[in-house]
Amino acid sequence: MSWHRVMIMARIDMKRLFKSRDYWIPMALLSGIFFVIMPFVLLSMITGITGSNIVEQVGGVLNALPGPIQDNLQGDTPEAQAAYAFAVYLLAPIAIIVPLTISSAVGAQTIVGERERGTGEFLAHSPLTDTEIYLGKLIASLIPGYLATAIGFTAYSLIVNFRVGPEMGGWFFPTAGWWLLILWVVPPFIAIALSIILWVSSRVKSTAAAQQAASLVSLPIIIASYAIASGLLYDPTVAAFSVGAIAWVLAIIGLVSGSKALSRERLLGVGIDG
To answer: How many beta carbons lie within 10 A of that of residue 220, not counting itself?
Structure first.
């Protein structure tokens, strides 16, 4: 296997993606809404409603949480604690939802799209091995989602420190749990989803069918991201590291299985029903 040829395959796919407005405009809007607009509005509301019944109610909920969770909450006032809980824990799922949504949309059409564009036959007769084609498609699907997350995460960090930092006595974000989330947990979660989605994309006859299947694959992972957010409340570092370790094992298993599923016949559409 040649990694040089893998990266050529990935660059060709990504170049095609970034030339299409149908791709990068929705990607920018999705990242902007989840990483910028929604956090800014929510955190501004929380930090700007001093003394209101809402803050008191939120404070009451936080005080009712188990001791280990309360120990992880920072802030000297109910407003500060509520803002910290939202910024560090409750909004954590966006770090998985955004890249997963983008990468799933790209991965859903990456193989079946070759057949629809009439380029599947050219790819099937190229010197690339099945594994090289698979890895190139995988990388081309993974990078856009993760790149959007890296940019969005930077913007989110600035917003959190700008809106919540004064309540905390200065800049405090990203926390150790968030660094682990972005660098250790998000990549294998995307890889797990893509290993299934690429498998589906090689077995359906249309992009629409692949996208529908991708939505079904993404849903349980999105639900799992909220479970991760709950785990971060107890022990951010341990929870993120443990979940990431399990996810990496599952990702490796999925990718190995997925690489064996792609064949020349699948690229040509041979044996695909419906």
So the answer is: 10
